[in-house]
Amino acid sequence: MKRLATLALAALLGLGCVSAQKKGDRPQPPTAEEQVAELKTQLSLTDEQTEKITTLFTENEAKMKDAREKTREEMRAEREELDKQVQALLTEDQQKTYQELQSKRGPKGGPKGGPQGNRGKGPKGKSEK
After folding, report:
1. Does the global pTM surpass 0.70?
2. Does the pLDDT value for residue 115 go beyond 90?
3. What CA–CA distance (Å, rounded) separates 25 from 48?
4. CB 35 within 8 A of CB 53
């Protein structure tokens, strides 16, 4: 009986740990530096472009941290403004590549599809209501 109680307690503790880990397992969005490093590679940015875009992304990152209470539309408008400012610093070829990269980006900054891209939808992306 004592052995059964010990096993039950161990199982409950194990489930509690797994549950706690899942809540904290959310992937963090990439930092401004990580995003700019990716763009520098994919767009062959000059040092001057990299510096200016890093400043824009860093400022945007701070705005987003302060904007947790803002609506999605306000955040989307700020992201669109950031995209316009970044594109103003790019050459035509870089702008085309940047736009392609943005079209591949999902609504939360990650790739389209995946667990969040199909949230609330049933098979083959059809809404369940």
Report:
1. no
2. no
3. 36
4. no
